[in-house]
Amino acid sequence: MSENGALPHRGKVLTVDTMNANVKKVDYAVRGPIVQRAVQIEKELKEGVKKPFEEVIKANIGDAHAMGQRPITFFRQVMALCTYPQLLDDSKFPEDAKNRARRILQSCGGNSIGAYTTSQGIDCVRHDVANYIQRRDGGIPSDPDNIYLTTGASDGIVTILKLLTAGEGRTRTGIMISIPQYPLYSASVAELGAVQVNYYLNEEKCWSLDISELQRSLQAAREHCNPRVLCIINPGNPTGQVQSRQCIEDVIRFAAKENLFLMADEVYQDNVYAEGCAFHSFKKVLFEMGPEYSSKVELASFHSTSKCYMGECGFRGGYMEVINMDPEVKAQLTKLVSVRLCPPAPGQALMDLVVNSPQPGEPSYQTFMKERTAVLSALAEKAKLTEEILNTVPGISCNPVQGAMYSFPRITLPERAINEAKAKDQAPDMFYCMKLLEETGICLVPGSGFGQREGTYHFRE
Amino acid sequence: MSENGALPHRGKVLTVDTMNANVKKVDYAVRGPIVQRAVQIEKELKEGVKKPFEEVIKANIGDAHAMGQRPITFFRQVMALCTYPQLLDDSKFPEDAKNRARRILQSCGGNSIGAYTTSQGIDCVRHDVANYIQRRDGGIPSDPDNIYLTTGASDGIVTILKLLTAGEGRTRTGIMISIPQYPLYSASVAELGAVQVNYYLNEEKCWSLDISELQRSLQAAREHCNPRVLCIINPGNPTGQVQSRQCIEDVIRFAAKENLFLMADEVYQDNVYAEGCAFHSFKKVLFEMGPEYSSKVELASFHSTSKCYMGECGFRGGYMEVINMDPEVKAQLTKLVSVRLCPPAPGQALMDLVVNSPQPGEPSYQTFMKERTAVLSALAEKAKLTEEILNTVPGISCNPVQGAMYSFPRITLPERAINEAKAKDQAPDMFYCMKLLEETGICLVPGSGFGQREGTYHFRE
Fold it and tell me: In its UniProt record, which GO terms are filed under biological process (chains A, B) (predicted)?
């Protein structure tokens, strides 16, 4: 205070000029300006403003329940039992649901899902995850001590990237990400102040990954940073490709040769639609390549409750498995996750159900399989339809959607539109998507939000 | 690969020498070595190892349900209804619980708690939080646009600290925290690479906060960093003091004069036990000080579902309210939280119930109040007993526990014990707590994990 007691007129403590500079660099397209405009239009519609459409269709994010997909009955039954255990006496609930709930509650402090769990996640859930991975990968062992439950897959991915970010200037950690990519990666790299290293997927070959392109990208990056991490999304987001076993082997060989830490984002592992395509986990391929690789290559792989047939994004459930992580680093990881105490317990419980779903002979098995199959068939049907319809539109060409939940069609924009966009200082595909939103109410995220080769334009649907 | 095809023998990509150096500096006592040893002892007991006790009592963390506190029935009923809406037809559930569930579900995409919510949190929940704050603070307005739902309070605190961390060397952000403090603060400051600035609470005056000590601490910090943030925990953790209205006013005046961003951790706002003590929110005091302050001082305050009478830690629900935040910074905050998509929807729903609990006339009101009062009375009773019993033990002296859920008694250690500890390279109170754990099974966190004046020793119970 000045002598006369009045406060001096200083500005804010926290301004865009004095805030964390890395945070300013963060860009997150799937919830960016186009989505903000969509929310605004929704409000305008509610207030009675006339538009050429009656509702906004938000195709900006893979949010199955919001688009009308129904939750899996068994999952919600068990979650209700865990939440309100008085229901365990209710004959309306099947025995297998009750058994799952009892088992989860016994693993919780005070038998309550409201207690903190251990930071790494509920013991029995981590065991179930390990068993699931082992079954999925044809018997290759999985150790519950290598499983960390997470707050959605995003949380796990950011945590591993955080551990890996070190150095300054030319020794700063470089993180190799595919272009196009899911913008969580570029956003986290920016926030951590790491260096984004782009490698381009081959649109001409159905968005496949070429080792020669990895090599080019790595070589170029080594001029200015220390590339240490290779991130792969398989099945691909936003591009919907499914990697062949051969490609995964080549990637692992490349990572081993070049001493890169591998991060495999496998949240769409049940979403494979195209004939002749199958999901191969990086873990499985790594171990099938023999001890020279399986004892050496450091790998973290990620899964969540948000996609596949369950689509339970709101619960923020997920796990990661770390392979060949240095034991001292693992201790640091365990310490780091303990600062946030624990992932949400309901999300952990839901993750348990995904990896420990009803088995043949259990009362809920048939309903569960019926619901699961119905969702996956509908998604496969939509994937095919999307590709077919898009390819009938002049100026749009779309690769087959082999998996995941999106297509990433290429659009040819007339010179005039490109110039108009540039005059507005907008990316041409942002201009296109904005126009589409204003005229039809359909909200798509432009390709520029995911990254694309210079001079090409796309959107994600 | 080398010419003959064998892989070169390089070391790990990620080692403690090449990992994020800030993460290495993170220390988190409430889940640190003593807790790891407690978990180990629990395993040994299960395996039949003989000990002088039969079970480990984990008093390392405020985890009410794990210690036997029962969840509030109404909260769990609504959560079950939100999770499994088929129960809305069940006559066992009261109408007010059904109404709350219907209202929350109507605010969710596809009426499912499994959909992503908006990044800032479900609209109707943010409105209810704002109404709650307004009621609590005697009508001082609260704007839902200033409310951000969070993954527990920790998440909100880390997010605001992240925004505030900038500069290098002598301009690096300094963050003022109380000593003793809740170690989330020191851990986050280390992880962000900010500068920890300690101010000491006055143990002789029941852990009160002296402005002269704030001034001393600030002055000293300005020699080597840029202190911009003042963090306050009220009611105090681990020290259990409740700040007087006068003290809060003084702190606000100090923050205004010295241009500090205020962070008020108010997660124990319902946990006030001592005669003559009352909870005063920083927001309320700020606005009662008139426009000179209320239009200027930047404040973020935090609350959660984890403490008070509900103790629902596992759901990771919470909110923060930001006051006088620069609009451009707020846009950056909204962008930043969008990268994690959304806080867990069940935690958001639970937060709603905390701020929108049963009202007189509603069917659940009486049971709710009975349960709430029983929990708070039991906690008050325990607070008094703890203080009384501890003060009968020679060598232990304990301040009155005015609020929150902990006491932080001072222990006088014999010279011999101090020397023995030092020979083992252990903090003397860590040595004491470890011995207590091995001999009695009681797991306490030593004062050194929270910080204390040089030469004094404590534990948190």
Answer: L-alanine catabolic process
